[in-house]
Amino acid sequence: MDPGGPESQRQSLVSGNLWSTETSVSMSDLGEIKTQMQSQLRHLQRMVAELKNSTTQDRMRYEELFRQMTASKETMKSTEFRLTNLQKFVAAQSDSANVTKKQVADNYNESKTVATAIELELGQLRGQIETMNRSIQELATVRGGAAAATSLPDNVMQLFDAVDRQLGVYDTRLAEMDVRFQVIESTSYNGVLIWKITDFLRRKDDARNGKTLSIYSQPFYTSRYGYKMCLRVYLNGDGMGKNTHISLFFVLMRGEYDALLQFPFRQKVTLMLLDQSSDRRHLTDVFRPDPSSSSFRRPQTDMNIASGCPMFVPHDAVLNSPYSKEDTIFIKCVIDTSDLN
């Protein structure tokens, strides 16, 4: 048979058609597989992006919680330091010769009670800090778990809120103790008072606007068992000195040992506005008590009627002068105790 004959050509044509059909089927399958692989690849890429985003968010939340825990630790250390200082001060006051026995006992017992309560509460605070530490460690360990990543931070934040509230209570109570101790520490028992008045302009405006007409100094004494006294100042003036002068008054107070003292009060009183420059040109006013005045009789209430100088110092002499620096003035009172036993 002729290889190039009609029969041979028919066979070749049939074989070519079969190969063409098989090739077209294979290419179609490959296209479908390629499409499926691309779809799966995009799906995997989305999953990877979501995992990265979730990991980043968990890391940020972990870092924020760690930062807040560190800040809480520092605040607790500061509170403990203040508490330690206050306890030392209370202990020192118990042996101080400058405070009467009754004042020492009252303030020491009260302060000791407050300090003990704060110590107990600080113990609870330490426990909460430890709980937060464990929670944060757990968060770092199971950060890949969706349930832990969503529920744990809420619990930790609740602990932080509780700690913040407790620290606010501590700050308030410690501030109150600071004020009480400052009064005790600054109390004079030699008949001399130096009174520092800060925020002078604001306080003067408060007096002019009627918000706070006058302010009182801390008490001071002629001796440990002597007369109890204080000063009262009207920064915007009172009576004849209103709106033009500082008015300064001496106040005799009811003391623990009045039954042992002589009345009416007769000691010479020297009032001064201190010059804060090197010149030391203090503005001074001196008076002797009037024995017939009710201001110097034995006090029947906490304070007698104030007596002193309604036109103590003109405002013009104080503003922009050596008597007022950094918005602060100093007033001094000296009681003549030379003739007292």
Q: What's the architecture of the largest domain, going by CATH?
A: Sandwich
Name the structural class: alpha+beta
Largest beta-sheet characterization: 5 strands, antiparallel
Q: From the alpha-carbon coordinates, what is the Rg to the nearest angstrom? A: 42 Å
What's the gist of this structure?
By secondary structure, the protein is α+β, with helices and mostly antiparallel strands.
Describe the structure.
With 341 residues, this protein is α+β, with helices and mostly antiparallel strands. It folds into two domains: 50-186; 192-335, Sandwich (Apoptosis, Tumor Necrosis Factor Receptor Associated Protein 2, Chain A), CATH 2.60.210.10. It contains five helices and nine strands. The strands form two sheets. Strands 2, 3, 4, 5 and 8 form a five-stranded antiparallel β-sheet that branches. It has a four-stranded antiparallel β-sheet with strand order 1-9-6-7, with no helix packed on it. Strand 3 and strand 4 form a beta hairpin. Mean pLDDT is 78; it is low at 17-25 and 145-152.
Please render the helix and strand layout as text.
Blueprint: H1 6-94, H2 101-141, H3 146-186, E1 192-197, H4 200-208, E2 215-216, E3 220-221, E4 228-234, E5 245-253, E6 269-273, E7 283-287, E8 307-314, H5 315-318, E9 329-335
Antiparallel strand pairs: 1-9, 2-4, 3-4, 4-5, 5-8, 6-7, 6-9
Helix pairs in contact: 1-2, 1-3, 2-3
